[in-house]
Design goal:
The protein has 143 residues and is α+β, with helices and mostly antiparallel strands. It contains three helices and five strands; from the N terminus they run H-H-H-E-E-E-E-E. The chain is elongated. The two termini are 20 Å apart. The chain has two domains: 8-54, no CATH class; 67-140, no CATH class.
């Protein structure tokens, strides 16, 4: 068994890639079978056992005070976690304190700097909300 488990979203992505690769090679398998194979690769007897071992908590290494990086309203940032709470499985409400304030306004007429931000991110590490150009409001690079 590997020491650090992937998140449920990462494991499902692995299963999807495995299923697609096997289909390319002429050996099509179903979704459930690909999940079981990913669980076996990580040393578990089945998907449900692996899912239980992963739990619904934040990804490994997430704790208050941890360093993070990502983008907020298309502006890159680094900072640390101030709070983390589980909204539902795979979804987390985060509060971050940024090392350097980011200007979230694209206009040259004025600025709006933020040094503390809050947001809800999903299993793939980004918020549902999007900017007008389609970028996630908040994207965390810890995934």
């Amino acid at each position: 068994m590997t020491m650090q488990l992937p998140s449920a979203a990462q494991a499902k992505d692995q299963a999807k890639r495995l299923r697609n690769k096997m289909a390319e090679d002429g050996a099509e398998i179903g979704h459930a079978t690909s999940l079981e194979l990913v669980a076996h690769q990580h040393g578990f007897r089945d998907w449900n056992t692996m899912l239980a071992a992963m739990g619904n908590g934040p990804p490994m290494g997430w704790a208050i005070g941890d360093k993070v990086s990502g983008t907020y309203l298309s502006q890159p940032f680094t900072g640390h976690m101030v709070s983390i709470s589980i909204m539902k499985p795979g979804w987390f409400r985060l509060e971050l304190h940024l090392d350097d304030a980011v200007d979230i306004v694209t206009s040259e007429s004025f600025s709006n700097f933020r040094s503390r931000i809050r947001g809800v991110i999903g299993p793939k590490g980004h918020s549902v909300e999007r900017t007008s150009d389609g970028q996630a409001h908040l994207q965390i690079d810890l995934w």
